[in-house]
Amino acid sequence: MKKTLPGIFALAVLASCNDSKNEKEISLNYPETKKVDTVTDYFGTEVKDPYRWLEDDRSEETEAWVKAQNEVTFDYLNSIPYKKELEERLSEIWNYEKISAPFEEGDYTYFYKNDGLQNQYVVYRKKGEDGETEIFLDPNKFSEDGTTSLAGISFSKDGSKAAYAISEGGSDWRKIIIIDAENKERVEDTIQNVKFSGISWKGNEGFYYSSYEKPEGSELSAKTDQHRLFYHKLGTPQSDDKVIFGDTEEQKHRYVGGGVSEDDRFLFISARNSTSGGKLFMMDLSKNNPELVTILDHENTDSYVITNEDSKLFIVTNMDAPNRKVVTVDAANPSPENWEDFIPETENVLSPSTGGGYFFAEYMVDAVSEVKQYDYDGELVREVELPGIGSAGGFGAKKEKEELYYSFTNYVTPGTIYKYNIEEGTSEVYNKPNIKFNPDDYESKQVFYTSKDGTKIPMIITHKKGLELNGKNPTMLYGYGGFNVSLTPSFSTANAIWMEQGGVYAVPNLRGGGEYGKEWHDAGIKLKKQNVFDDFIAAAEYLIEENYTSSDYLAIRGGSNGGLLVGATMTQRPDLMKVALPAVGVMDMLRYHTFTAGAGWAYDYGTSQDSKEMFEYLYNYSPVHNIEKGTEYPATLVTTGDHDDRVVPAHSFKFAAELQEKHAGEEPVLIRIETKAGHGAGKPTKMIIEEYADIFGFTLYNMGFDVLPNKTKEEVKG
């Protein structure tokens, strides 16, 4: 179906009618983006950066540009005839009660619940089995518009105190509020300027947290590279908080974290300069003036202490074990030469947890979960029987508990919580969501396709049963491919709407991810990053060859590193897809490391300062630098948030400006900039629904649908 546009976009769209065709040809009048004469020399190559001024997120010029772009974008999106219909259907299916697994703290059992369309989940609790359920914390009351969210909560040892973090407008900068858990009243001043931090209590006296000094300039984009671990003692001002680690040049690292063992005896400290690989230290808190003890003094592995039994430490590591294993060592001599295998490495990636005096080893087998239960002697107790093929998670509880809770989901099964009897190994349904979606109407299957260099890549394809392979099915190809992140099967309310419209949803497990361990991750980093793009392109070609879809009905989507994936793929193969949907993407590969904590991504990307070879490799695929004038690009909707201080919105701003200047086709290239929103975490439900309605509406409309596909089929049948 050809698209027709209702009305004329004021100041944004010029529509002209051709009498010989029953359609309108549309051209967008994009806001003018000024260019500046900025040039940087990289190893003798001069690179122009005409839109660098958009990096200044505090300038009035940037603010005006954002406003002008949004006016054009929302005029377009709001004119899509079925946008409101999508929004209403998304709201309808989203409107079901969502409950988390319960957890016990002190005399109370706590859980999270969202009644349906609440912007933020509410924390509830009850005392004992028969206690009355009450609201403990309602983040919907943190701000009028729902953009201030709960970013974590931690209870003191006896459950009498709680410290919770809040995020305002989606920023990674947090505040920590400390309350008396019994009466819910604040007990002291708010801890300010906290970033990339957990909250780990030592008994009931205080807690450890991490942060940077507030940077000079913009707190949303200025570089942060010296992370510190602090200890806050209750009853004292933040100015008295003691730096435990990270205050010296020798201890300078970009990411520092600290966690106290369940028995309160040890503090374990991780120190990293990149998102992969880190050092590991410990302090014995049972001693007066405990000293810092080194467990690992290099950043060649990812290792952490999962638990301890008196002085016996259990460490999860990928040292000499790319798929991870668990080792044991005595705290008196914790260095690697003394490590002994406890749960050895297998051919599948291990993600262990503990609960009720046992270990639960979750393995990824072609991105699908298998779980085995071990005792503290390392003996296999049983393989946990899961409800089906999909992703299982949770399997954590305190040592004395007799039950734990885990979740199970896949692409057609809404997340269900199960109660597990730890001794007997039996599961029962604890909470199954009552959602207006029938999994029996859909099917999900895994295929293996061949990438450019011959590597076999798994992909899960999900759609309505009875799908006709005619090359005309609207298809959403979603990918990530980086940072050791694994895309395992999980249900999405939004994707349910996509599939309800007859859409295909396909997720390949690209190299750069963690689905097959460290070697799979390392096969998609630095000078091998092109493998990731090749894997994604090959996924698209497979879907086309197998007649699931065609280039006229294919959309590619990804966020953050996945936004880079989409940006690189659409600039390398603009002919391959009809719609491109890069979200909060890393688009300027020559300058990403100069913003916030971006330099910490160098393990995956390398930087333009590393070497001439690394610069040239990055320059060759950097999305901002590979948009060619005169090329017809797919219909593109770039999405970002003005408070994104992880992947700063300047990446998306510059990418959109380059596209609008150089794009030769008639397809729209727009940028949707959410205000008072960040990288994604804590985004209010209302905002999420509106964004998905825009994304799906933009996608289907640019595939040529005048009405929603499921209605089209009904009309054809009629």
Automatic annotation (TrEMBL):
It catalyses: Hydrolysis of Pro-|-Xaa >> Ala-|-Xaa in oligopeptides. One of its GO terms (biological process) is proteolysis. Pfam families: Peptidase_S9 (PF00326), Peptidase_S9_N (PF02897). GO terms for cellular component: cytosol; periplasmic space. Residues 31-432 form the Peptidase S9A N-terminal domain. It is found in: Periplasm. The keyword Zinc does not apply. It is an enzyme of class 3 (hydrolase). Its EC number is 3.4.21.26. Belongs to the peptidase S9A family. Cleaves peptide bonds on the C-terminal side of prolyl residues within peptides that are up to approximately 30 amino acids long. Has an absolute requirement for an X-Pro bond in the trans configuration immediately preceding the Pro-Y scissible bond. This is prolyl oligopeptidase. It comes from Salegentibacter salarius.
